[in-house]
Amino acid sequence: MSLRSYVITRLLLTIPMILLLLSIVFMVVRVIPGDPVLLHFEKYADPKDVERLRHSLGLDKPLYAQYLDYVIGVLKGDFGKSMQDYSPVAQQIFSAFPATLELAICSIMVAVGIGVLLGVRSSCSYGSVQDHAIRAFGVVMYAIPVFFLGMIFQLIFGIGLHWFPTGGRIYPMLEPRGLVVKMVRPQGGFPSVLIQSLPAALAALVVAFLVLRKRRVAFRPRGFSIALAAFLTSWLICAGLMWHYAGRGGLRLSTGLYTVDSILEGNPVKLVEAWRYLFLPSLTLGLVLCGIFIRLTRTNMLETLRLDFVSAARARGLKENTVVYGYALRNAFLPVLTMMGLQFAALLGGAILTETTFSWPGLGRYLVDRINFRDYTAIQGAVVLFGLMVALVSLVVDVLYAYLDPRIRL
Amino acid sequence: MKTKDSKKGLSTTVAVGVIVLVIVIVLAAWYLLAPKAKVEALIMGTTDSVETNIDPAEAYDFFGWEIIQATGCGLVQIKEGTPYGAGEKDIMPSLATDWSVSSDGLTWTFNLRKGVKFEDGTEFNATHVKYSIDRGMSLAIPEGAFVGIGFSDIIDSVEVTDKYQVKFHLKIPFGPFLSLMASPVSYIVNPKYAPFDSTVNYAEGNARASCPNDLGPYTLTNWTRKAGKDYEMRFKANPNYWDKASGLPRSKELIIKFYADATGLAMAIDAGDIDVAFRQLKASDIESLKTKTNVKVWEGTGAFIQYLVFQEKIKPFDDARVRRAVAAALNRTALCKTVFLGQAANLYSMIPNGMMGHIDAYKTLGDANYTFTKNTLKELGYDETNKLVVDLYYETSGHYPQSADQVAVIKSSLEASGVITVNLHGFDWPAYRVKRGEESMPAYIYGWYPDYVDPDNYVYPFLHSSGSSWLHNNYANEQMDKLIEDARATSTTSTRETLYGQIQQLMVQDAPIVPMFQSSAWAVTKPNVKGVYLDISQVWRLWLLEKE
To answer: What is the ipTM, given to two decimal places?
Structure first.
């Protein structure tokens, strides 16, 4: 099977998987005792009002009708409205996701960085004091409750040393805006936009030229026409985009990831602040997760280091670091990659305890919060997103497998 | 060969090192030269959040009201630091300069302050008062405070008698009327932003459209929610505030940051990330913060109470003697000491300690009075071999403070009598809420926060047969109903005190509900913050906070 058809098959298989997940969640949230409607009434609940609210939330319909409504909505991309505050679930999840993503990326980097390095060190010094120390460290980290470690860090670095804030995502008033370019449509109309975008088009032409040179495409006549086409298309695209955004008052590019946004904004103060807020939660989560990576790397490295090709590489006089990191680690890395994918997907579902400890406004807190309101639509939406993330990440991991180990055919 | 290799390695290392160094220096210079934003505002941290919105017609939660009080204004207000809460002397003029009540107690007349301006320059007048009250009553949001407090049972109509005079015609004489007018429910909205036929909800990225109030000390300039949860609120001093001349609000800018849990909030104030931490802090955190010099801990009177409810539909709790026997076995002192480390007070009446009319009614039954419990239960056929079984239900998702700890102490104190067995059943709030309506819990724990600071609000919703329908405990006593209605109908403080005394004695006789404790109120600030008032009124006055 070619890579492309493999990816397409996997993507198609995701659909029934998500539907199955959706159906299970749909049932489970309705089976647990509790009623999202009643929670709107702290004290007096006039039965008529209760019925009215139940009707407006669509909860008075038979179960199969609710289910069909929901599935049809999801297929159309509509995740419904929250049963707690009636705002669109997709919008709420979207506003929580960047925070979770940023934390997930940073903590997986910490976990893999520390875990793999220590795992390799440990396997290279098999049986020594260093090996035992690293293994003990891994076990302790794995066993320690994340909120406990988080609180220890808050006490030391936040309260004791005042280096890092104890919670939140950024200092008030310092949220990065991302890249904001103000533009207005010039008086000369579209022709003057064409002239303004000429430099960009010329740059595209130079790039095209360089690429063609490198690929050794014969310059005439095919290469010439390609370059001309590239030049004209990119000129028109640039001008069109400029015209479009100028009509809307300018271009605003923001990812919701505060580190990226502050770089886009070009504001170093905000970047440093974003890092300061990100540091403790990522370190906490990363350290707790690194235990698994230490053990996994160590075990696989021990096996790999015994193999013939490692001895052969050493015999050829390669430096030890090259043998260990360039040859052995690359072969021992596959299981680590799988674990990395799984952990990363789990992190995207929100690190509930870490997010709570550090008041991090992410998906984990959202989900727990909504369970406490029996907010059916919100819980369903969050779980579906979570399912999608797991599916996508495991697909990416499989593709990376093929890249890392050419023997694997997908 | 070898030497060549290592030389190459060395030069690469040096090159990489130099590049990294240059990058670091450039970045550091960039950072150091960049202009630093200074935040002069007062920053408050909280674990509260706005439950629905900040529209007086719908908001019915502590924090929503806190924001309405900061951004809006009512006809009257409760004086800060008041010890008593509900007496005539505790009410101060606000948008009304003076007022009077007719001799039958059915008509209240308010003369309004002149020259008060809304944000858009419109002058405040009597029509705005009528608009605000009529709007809340006609919207009648089922989950809202107008319905919850029962405005339509109290107010008949609002009449504009002059540009600056308004009359309230009541259906019943209602003693606590001024307290009701001081409550954020009765705050005046700006008709321009508060349509008559719909409530004002949170609008993403538009603080003005999210807030119908603008006569108060602060203007809401920014309100962000992330993942459907409050993330940050910002306020600026309102340039049109009527009492601006007194230097209000004391801080020109105010920021509220929201924390996920009590521990996070305690950490933040301890680390100096915020200037003020208010609600909710855990007893143990407060104990440890008290010993520190980098923060100041403020203690005040709380109005939150918790109590034990008996389901009279379920035998044997239909018998007042059984209920009294259980009540006598409660050990309130142990509860307050063990669970709340002394930061809550024993409560022997539904009316909180310190409030008008309060008497220690349940003290006649005593605390951990096992002799009484044993003797009473013996008459009913319960003894050491045939114990009374109490199925005690409680809430586990943090809706009330430390519920699981509380019931553990209650269980041990009841079982110490030797004639009672307690089975504990915990449910999270949504499930608990359903069970209340099903009337299937023989004994359960509930809490109460006042809607307006008056003994009526601690008696009518619990002991009056129609007022307590929400609690589903099936208690009804005609004599009790009559006493409560009489106490509502008069505004003479001495008469009301007598009536509340009788009500509380009858309450102990029937024992449908057993009060357990009253929480204290806590705020923690940096040492340079002043203007903190934690009085019985439960108003958290954001506009009085200031950094020195």
So the answer is: 0.76
